[in-house]
User: Fold NAD-dependent epimerase/dehydratase domain-containing protein from Desulfomarina profundi.
Amino acid sequence: MRDAKKGQILLRSDPASAKDYIHIDDVAFLVKEIACRGKQKIYNVAGGRQITHAEWLEQLVCLTGCTVEVEEGAPLVKFVPVDISRVKEEFGFSSQSVFTVLENRI
Assistant:
């Protein structure tokens, strides 16, 4: 975010790198639901889909007009997808877009 506001991002990982992000409001909702109504001992708390660095960059460029450079030889890092079916079924959970954070901070 800081670099985007300055006008230039140097990405040190491959744009295809991805992981599961979750909005903090969704975390608070799930923690409360699990504490008050949870029936299982273990829950995965996550957004439910992999978001690539390219998707983040697309949003940042759109919102700030910054430019992006990818460091040569930047590594590809992908995390294992997180199964959130338990919180979806038990609490009717549906994650909100983590990109709303960007819109509110620019």
